[in-house]
Every structure is written in C-alpha cells, then in structure tokens.
Amino acid sequence: MKRPGIENEPIKVQTNFFEVTKLPKMKITHYDVTISPEVPPRLNRKVFACFSEENKNVLGGVKPVELEKGSAPMTKTRPPQGFKIVIRKARDIDMEDLFQFLNAKGNMTNNCKMAINAMNIIIRHEISAKYPTLRNPFYTPQGATSLREGIEAWQGYYQSARPTMGKMMINIDLSATTFYEGGPLIQMVAKILGLRSPNDLRRGLSDMERQKVEKRIKNLRINDNHRPENKRKFKIEKLTQTSASDIMFDIDNGNKFNVETYFQDKYNRRLLYPFLPCVIARKNIHLPIEVCDVIPEQRYMRKLDRNLSDKMTNFARQNPTIRANRIQTGLNILNYQDNEYLKQFGMEISNNMAVVNARILPTPTIQYHQSSRESHVRPNGGSWNLRDKKVINGATLNSWSVLAFLSYKDLPDQAIKFFVRELITTCQDTGMNISERDPSICRENPIGDIKESLTKAWLKARNKARGVKPQLILCILPNTGSDLYAKIKRVSDTVIGVATQCVQSTHTRKPKKQYCANVCLKMNIKLGGENSFLIPKHIQFLADEPTILMGTGVTHPSPGDNEGLSYVALCGSVNVKASRYAVSIRVQCGRTELIADLANMVKELLKTFYQTCGLKPKKILFYRNGVSKSQFMYVLESELAAIKAACQSLEADYRPTITFVVIQKRHHTRFFPIEKKNADKSGNCLPGTVVDMDITHPFEFDFYLLSHAGLHGTSRPTYYQVLYDENGFDANRLQTLSYNLCHTYVRCTRAVSLVPPVYYARLAATRARLYSFSFRNTDTESSESVAINFGAVEELQKVMYFI
C-alpha cells in the first residue's frame, strides 16, 4: 500500500542509520567465480586475494570484492598446492533503477535488489577479512567477557544497506554471540568441570566427567604445541577411555610404548597430566590434552542453558547512551572513510547518526468498573497500577484448591495460607468475588505423576465445594524450571480441563501487593472475567462497526532440529471492545512460512465472534507476525485469499473489508532521544514515539512504533507495514489504533510492545509447544500442507486459558 498522509507535530530523534552521501554511479559488473578444488571459506578468501594481487594489471588495477556462497567442511588433508579459478561474467548491475526506486519513481526491480546486494558486499568485504563474520555481523574479541565453562561472549557489529526515502542508508547496530575461549585445552577442561585451575585435574577424571568434557569439546578445532616449529591443526573426534599413561601402541621396531613415554623419548616433553585421557583426532592420532591449544575465533553453536542465557542477555543489554556510544565505536572499527573498496566504487558514508522526524502519539484512556474510586486512567510513562480500581467484569471463584510441589519444611502450611489470604484480599479489592476463602492445600512430588497430582487437587476442590466443578488449581512451584510447568499445563489444558495458575514459591513467602495484583489479573481472565477496556473514542475503528482483530503467532523448531514441527496460533477478538479473545491452533511442517490451514482457522474465529456477541464482523484487521521481508508478497497473496475464502465459505456474499498488516520485531532499528523531555526514566524514547519518514520505505505504508516504556537496555520499536487495506486507514489512524491497543494487554498494567492479538497468539503457540504433541508426518511429499488441529479441551476454549 502507498503511504497516506500524516499528522501531529514532529520531534527529532537520533537513529542508528548512517547516510550514504555518495552512491556508485557506474555500472557494477557481477561475475561468477568458481575455485577448485573446494576448500573452506577462509582459504577461499586467501586464494582469491592472491589471485587478485597477481593479476592486478589484467583486472585494470581494480580490487574485486567477492560474495561467499556455501562453505566446504574443514579438510582432513593438506591444502592443495594449486587452484583453478574460473571467472564468468553474470550481469551488469545498472544503478539507475535504484535511484528511481529511492525517489518513488519506480518499483523494486530485480536490478534494484542486485544493486543493494552489491552495496552490502562492498561494505562488508574488507571487515570480513579481519574479523570472524556471521552473515551480516562481524565480531571482535575487544571487551570479550568470560561466561562459564570455557565460553565467552563477544561484542559484534551488524551493518546493512537499506533503501529509505530518497537515499540509501547503512543500518549499524550491536550484536553479540558466544565463542570458545582460545588457549590451552587443559584450561578449558578445568573450566568445563568448574575447577579453579588445571592443578585440580591431578586426581584424573571420573567416567561422568570424561563424558561431559567429551560432549563439550567434540568437533573443536585445535593445534598441537609440542613442536612449535611445525604446529598442526586437528578437529577433536572424541576422548580416549583410558589415560595417556595407559594407552599402549607399537613402534615400527615392534617395541610397545605408552603415550606418556613416547612424548618423553620422542619430544623430550614430560607430561604433567599423564593420568588424563587423550584427544583422538584424524587418522586415529592420540594427543595428550596438555599438548593441545584451542584455536581462537570458534563460535559456540550449542543452545545455551538458562544460566548462560541470562549472562548473555546481561552482556548484550545496554542502556541507550552506552549503545549509541558502542555503535559509534563499531563505526570507527569499520572506518568507511579509509576503505579502499568503497573509494573505488565511488561510495561515501556519513560518520554521523541520522537525525529523523518522529511524533509522540497521545496516551489513551483506560476504563475500569464504574464503582472504582478511579474508573478512568490515563497512563503516565507507559504504566499504571490497580490501586483504587476494580476490573470491568470480576469473575466468581467458588471451587478451587492449592497444589504445592514443595515439602512442609520448604514451605509450611501457614506460609501458604498467608499468601492465599493476601491473594484473596487483592482479588476482592479489584472486583473479583472469591466465595471459597479457605481452599484445600495438597502437597505432591515435583518429579512424581503430575496427572495424578492434579487429579487429587481437583477432587479435593470438588469435595470441599460439595460437588461444584473446580474452576482453578493454584500451583506453587519450587523453582523456575520449565519442565514441571510444561507438564502441569499439558495435563490441565488437554486432559483434565481446569484452569491452573502457577506461582513461584519465592513470591509466596513475602507476597508483594503488585505481584498479587498481576496474579489476580491472570486469574480473572482465566475464569472468564474482563479486566479493562479503552473508552470508545480511543478505539473508534472498532466502535463504529463490528470489527474483529486477528493476530498470528508461530513457534518454529530449534536450530538443528530438522524434524521439528511449527506451532501456529491465530488469535481473534470475540467482542466489539476487543477485551476478550479466542484462539485457533495448528501444528504444521517445521519452518513453513505460510500458515497452511489459515482459511479454517479464520472461519473458526469468525464463528466464535458471532456466537459470542451475535454480530457478524464487518471489518477485519489482520496483524501478521513472523514474515521475512522477502516473503511479504508471497504471504499476502496466499493468506489474503485464505481469509476471503473463509468469509465466503460462511456466506457466499459475506465480504468484510480487510486490512492486512505485517509486523516485525526482529530488526536492528533503534531510536535515541535528543531532548530530555522526549525521554523516559530509562533513557529511551517515550512510549508512543512513532517514526514514519526519513528511514522508512521510499513510498509504501510503513512505520516504526515504540509503544512500551523501557525497563532494561535499549527499547526495540515494532515495525508495521500495511500490505493491503480496504478500510481506508490514514497513517495517523492506524498508528494511533495500534498504539492504543497496546494498552489492553490483560496480564499487566503496562503498555506492551506488540498489539495484543499477536502477543496472545505467541503465548498460545508457545503453550501448544508445551503439550509435546508427538505427531510426525510420514508423507514427505505433502508435508508442506499438513496442519493438525489440536489444543485445550472444549471447556477451556471458552476462556483465555493461555494467559
């Protein structure tokens, strides 16, 4: 969609975009280069650099830049002495198409895409020869932080050429990833086992320790250090089961030696740790751990555990001022001004962060029950509280129980009862009706049969309420582990059919009012109540005519899981004020971009809307999450057709007007306030800051919206792009509606970063993954269209059980 007009007085903010002040004007020639035999990327670069240097005259003095395609594995043989290079001209890239596109005089042609790709190759070429590079970002050991077990966090810098309004910009941002620490392998082994120094290894390794070390260092690249003049490189295959002093092998003359003696006699190297196992490398080579060094700059590719993940998050998180300064540091490392490749292609890039126009949208008014002392509230700084407020529709709780997965010693009954009293008081104060004030308390083993445990709690609640069906089980968990939580949700949602509210035991010992209030909000929603809604004039688009909001959420398999499934959720509002939602869930082939069964999912939600409020939606506002930019049109064509087909399958002439908006959170755009009055207390831009010019699409309808207040680090705005619009939105109306909706998220009294239908869909998709649905498609040819419908029991589907 083309960009409509905008309103509101602009302010100025800085953004991490740097203007390309001079663009290449000549044609850029693209050649396909084949180097044989195939070798790893780093050697490929050296070979090509050597070729370029030797053939300067033939190349007319030009330094070519190359784009890596694919990567050969690390070879187990010595590199070849000679290489064959074949160069074929592929195409000329004419920059004129790009100039036309930037100035809104032409569309995004294939030539435009090639020109932008060429610019990305030019800006990355020099830096990728100096530092480890992963697609866009490059990483530097400067400021690296040790995390644990021989793993360290490295600061990285992302750079990407971006077309904007009338100009090209370079988006530069921070990145972070994990590397193995370089240096002696013996040091790494000590760290993996949590020892203070290698001296603590003198007792040898237990079988369990050996397995732990082997798992961590398998495939690690090392070099030996016992012959400094002739270091060799290896990849670790495994560890021996016996120590260096026990491993025997034959020498040519028939004599037998152990590894310890061999190194003493052959290299005059007395082993300090002969009681440790050896590393097994290529051709069955046995190397004592102490003669191995870990080659630096190797990425740690495994999934981080919770502790490491938290440390990594803290390393990567910086407040806006620090982030802006570090981006400037990255710019200095990139040193565009002295980049020979940029110069020869006629490119120049500004050293200054772009200053762009922004606007701050007005804060909406939130309505609570009219009996509240404060029934209307305008949030200040993106948050508010429940003091003196009662929920719009408070649920009644007649039958419930408490299930504690802790012993009496860890959490006595009186502590549980005190927490329950505080929670009930908070629920009553906020408008809920808790008729059962003394729920039964059960205790069960966290590693026991969870179905049996929940069933006991369910029966206790029913018996105490004299046969009334239990509505809720309050589960107290011993720690933050996710396994127990997953089991509870799977059983309660899909087997028993009762709402559960999980709380951590740490919060029950000295319950805080705010914590109890947040738990109360979730309980009210799970029991069918409503917490709040916006006053009609702040959701005018919904108030004018019956309108359904829809949002998608997808969770894909973990990296490396080639047989994993994707879980897709579609959330839709079920009333005219969009204060309650229903969800439709499918399981489909992993990493499929399209939602395979979207037509039936939309049909389900349209029916639910009609059944709930007796009205047919006349308008559909569809927020699509999780689509890469290159797939926008592909997704639009397929899924818009599916939405229309769903409508017409209900009634042949049922054609509600549709607006299809893609939203993205995975991008590298950040904003930094210039004036203090436009910053919140965390140093971020104020909630409601919207940018829809200068760094956005040259002419299409898109914008960045920062709808939440910053808590930690630098806030990430959400990117919205309108792909299709039959509802006649102008920019201000859609931006304001989206921002206002972000104040209706039911789990907290804060404006959130995503519109609620998308947020809820993500929660529902994540919940679906917890069910560990064991479906595996056996028909590989039709796997792309496979979508299995499943979810909570029917009773729970009437409420927002996934909150």
UniProtKB/TrEMBL annotation:
TM ranges: none
Location of the PAZ domain: 184-296
Domain of life of the source: Eukaryota
Location of the Piwi domain: 472-769
SUPFAM superfamilies: PAZ domain, Ribonuclease H-like
UniProt cross-references to SMART domains, sorted A to Z: DUF1785 (SM01163), PAZ (SM00949), Piwi (SM00950)
GO terms, molecular function: RNA binding
Pfam family, one: ArgoN
Family statement drawn from the similarity comment of this UniProt entry: Belongs to the argonaute family.
UniProt name for this protein: Piwi-domain-containing protein
Species in which this protein is naturally found: Rhizophagus irregularis
